[in-house]
Amino acid sequence: MTDKEYWKLVDELQNSAKELSLAKGKEYANAYSKDFDRLFNFKAIANLLGIAPETTALVYILKPLLSLSSTVKRLEAGEGITEIGSDLTESIKSRIQDVSNYNNLLWALFNERMPKAKEEEEEWIPVIEKTINRKGNSNSPKGKINE
Q1: CA distance 49 to 61
Q2: Cβ neighbours of residue 74 under 8 Å, at least 6 residues apart?
Q3: Which domain holds residue 133?
Q4: Are 128 and 76 in a shared domain?
Q5: pTM for this one?
């Protein structure tokens, strides 16, 4: 596969994965309430099970990955891709798109926990100052930032 063919394939896969995510998104969130949250199902299931929403997302990722693993094992056993594809209830492409979309949702869950830009900057400044002051040495004359 040439580089051009590869990137064309990736673009097509990502575009169709996005379409799939948009179509399924309302099913998996409390889309019909005034407090729409794309991550609602992960949070609700996590709350019921006493686990982190990110753990729930990882479990969701595992289902299509296990299906893909079974497909690969069949290929390794000598079955043809056409034969395998005709037996599947969901296409290989659809399962790969599911993994991609669940990865995006997992990233969104992590991202929600991260401090926002200004908060992040304010959070790291004291850490940097403590580190510099502890060492008692820096490029600044008094060993502190901005002094």
Answers
A1: 17
A2: 84
A3: 116-147
A4: no
A5: 0.69
Two structure tokens written together for 89: 């209830």
Please indicate, yes or no, whether residues 143 and 97 belong to a single structural domain of this protein: no
- Reading the block at residue 131, the tokens are 């580190």
What is the C-alpha separation between 130 and 23, in angstroms, rounded? 49
108 with 125, same domain: the answer is no
pLDDT in tens, 88-146: 888 999 999 999 999 999 999 999 999 876 655 555 555 555 555 554 444 444 444 44
pLDDT tens-digit map of 59-69: 999 999 999 99
Nearest-angstrom CA–CA distance, 28 and 60: 12
Enter the tokens of residue 84. Answer: 């395998």
Centre a 10 Å sphere on the Cβ of residue 139 and count the other Cβ atoms it contains: 7
